[in-house]
Amino acid sequence: KFNQLVREEPDPIVKTMSLYAQDPSPNKVDVSIGVYKSESGGPYLFPCVAEAKKILAANDPGHNYTNMQGIPEFLEGARRAAFGEKYASEGKLASLQTISGTGALHMAFLFLREAGYTNYYLGVPSWSNYVSMVEHVGGKVTTFNHYREDTKDVDFDSVVATLESAPADSVFIFQTCCHNPTGADYTQEQWTKIAELVKQRSIIPLLDTAYQGFSSGDKEKDAWAIRHFYELGIEFVVSQSFSKNLGLYGERVGAMHAVVQDKEFVPNAQSTLVALFRSECSFAPAFGARVASIVFQSPELQKVWREDVANITKRLKSVRQKVLERLTKLQTPGTWDNVIKQEGLFWYSGLTPAQNDRLISKHSVYSTSIGRVNIAGLSDANINYFCDAVDEVVRA
Ligand code: LMR
Q1: How far apart are CA 394 and CA 396, in angstroms?
Q2: What's the gap in Å between 357 CA and the centre of ligand 1?
Q3: C-alpha of residue 14 to centroid of ligand 1, in Å
Q4: What CATH number matches the domain at 65-297, 3.30.830.10, 3.40.640.10, 3.40.50.410, 2.40.30.20?
Q5: CATH number among 3.90.1150.10, 3.20.20.30, 3.40.50.300, 3.40.910.10, domain 2-45+310-395
Q6: SS3 letters for 106-120?
Q7: Is ipTM > 0.90 here?
Q8: For the segment 85-107, what is each residue's pLDDT rounded down to a tens digit?
Q9: Rounded Cα distance, 292 and 74, in Å
Q10: Which keywords accompany this UniProt record (predicted)?
Q11: 340-352: pLDDT as tens digits
């Protein structure tokens, strides 16, 4: 009966985003949902995407159904982006075009369930949607600490201890770069240790890659963990989003890949993915994937894309530096240098929920309730306003 349905709370990220939209203040600052914004504060259209859209418009493919696995050129490019030229073409990957990163995760969870994996481990704090998504498909999540408040960095002892004690055939969800929400990523040395343990203990990693390029400024470097796991002969899955690193948010462009080390079984994995997707939504949306394919296939647009990603990362780093300088100048009580140590879009500020509420109610500054600040929402026009507001709530 419909009257038995409970009223659900919105996701905290989406809740903050809607509160921002309703706020009439001319000073309001949106540092909530993970969207990259330009220096002028508006949405950023990647130059390579602008060019690809023109090419697509001039070669209109119409609106027929595409391919249930996904648009082949898109999947080829997505594989190359994640695994690199060489590994992408070795025939060990089963791939599916998905409804962006969330769709990729959902398909990964279904695929893993089909293969018999339902026991998940997740380092926290983490993206607010993982746990409900796993539970939605009948999986169980155990959490461990990804982050230490005292060092404001990765809690690597906790990661290692959990990998050492988790039962075989557990799935570990890891983010490859730009950790959401902490901005605290693993070093290559730490990834090497993780991969070693994963292999020893028959763990299945799910590598979620939603911000590839925004940690180091180089997409290849940010995919290091994926390629390292592949090289070690580990079986794993990758969920991949092009929302952020191509700015195609609303077009829902993503992919899921399963690495099947014994090539003989790739057709089984591939047909399983297609069968599962048929029951879910049949075909993924075409427009954004076609735009992405044009970028993937053109060496010139690839070059522009690389430069775009490098410039974005440069801007993020410069905003972080300016935030630190302003808070230092204000002598805001506390230590704030984690703002320049953390990478990607997010700064895990350490502000409490009460301080975050006050940022909203008194200053119209919208960061998420767990203190995650989307650095890309800041620019020269509002950095001082934002830092002054942080200073005020810290002293209040
Ligand atoms: C975020 O964490 O803000 C993004 O990944 C957007 C989302 O879907 O939550």
Answers
A1: 6
A2: 20
A3: 8
A4: 3.40.640.10
A5: 3.90.1150.10
A6: HHHHHHHHHCCCCEE
A7: yes
A8: 999 999 999 999 999 999 999 99
A9: 7
A10: Aminotransferase, Pyridoxal phosphate, Transferase
A11: 999 999 999 999 9
